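[agent] plan:
  1. take the single chain provided in the ticket
  2. run structure prediction with default settings
  3. attach structure tokens to the ticket
  4. add a short note for the reviewer (M.T.)
[agent] executing step 1
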Amino acid sequence: MSALNNREEYIKKSLEGAQKARIEMDNISAEGQKVINEARIESEAVLKETREIRDKIISEARQQAEQEAKNIFKKAEEQIEQEKRSAMLELKSEIANLAITVAQKIVRRELSSDKDQSDLIQETLKGIDLKLSVNDK
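[agent] step 2 finished; step 3 output follows
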């Protein structure tokens, strides 16, 4: 009987050991699942943060590009305005020079009749038209 008791004791201890091993495996499996879940949560948080950083970088780049475009447009408008002012000053100067030329011609010439005066004015206006058309080109 002693051998049978020993055998029974051995089987009982083996079953207890197997039960402990199963419990330990369940604990290890639960811990593994917990680690996997934590890793998943952490990776989702990292992905979310990465997306937010990406969106912020894109938004900042877009804003910077829009601001640069506005600056370029503003500078172009200012340059156009400056060129218009310069052209107007040049045109005023040309008109003043032409007026002086007309006045000089009138003063130099002795006009004896209204027809002579009218002919001189017509001749000068043709010269002005010719000069303006040359400057336009």
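[agent] step 4 note for reviewer: The chain has a mean pLDDT of 86.
[agent] ticket updated
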